[in-house]
Amino acid sequence: MNLKSCSKGVVLSILVVCLMFGTSIIPVFAESSESSSKDDTANSGSYSGTEFQATYRLKKKNRAKVNFWIKNTGDVSVRITINGDQKKTLAPGKSGHISAPVGFLNSKYKFKAVPTPNGGKISIDYRIAQRD
Predict the structure, then answer these.
(1) Which helix H or strand E contains 110, and what residues bound it?
(2) Cα 54 from Cα 100, distance rounded (Å)
């Protein structure tokens, strides 16, 4: 065995280790857009655009239910959902909320607010909170 073939093996081994490390760290960054709530409030704020969407990882041990509240500050009706269920439509100027139980198995919850019935731009104040 000569020195040239030995150094190729070392370089190849280092390359394999770097690739394995690089692919194992990608999921850490891929999930950074999701949030985890340890207190009552997961998120609140205002939004204007074509569709509001947020995803959170929730745990039942933190609270038994999650609420999605909005105030429709725009001029189009807004339909809100949690994981595609618990639908409610709010007319311009109205506010309201929907709730869903936080389960042991389903830890990801997707909150959506969309214009209805014919599309458009929405404008809302929102609050997503985990409660008992």
Answers:
(1) strand 108-116
(2) 15
pLDDT in tens, 33-62: 344 444 444 699 999 999 999 999 999 888
Nearest to 46 by CA among 81, 72, 82: 72
Contact between 10 and 90 (Cβ < 8 Å): no
- Angle, CA 111 vertex, CA 109 and CA 114 arms, to 5°: 155
Rg of the Cα atoms in the chain: 23
Tokens of 2: 């000569």
CA distance 106 to 123: 29
Phi-psi region of 102 (alpha: psi -120 to 50; beta: other; left: phi over 0): beta
Please tell me the pTM assigned to this model.
0.68
- Residue 52 and residue 107 in contact, taking contact as beta carbons nearer than 8 Å: no
Cβ contacts of 110 within 8 Å, gap of 6 or more: 53, 54, 55, 82, 83, 84
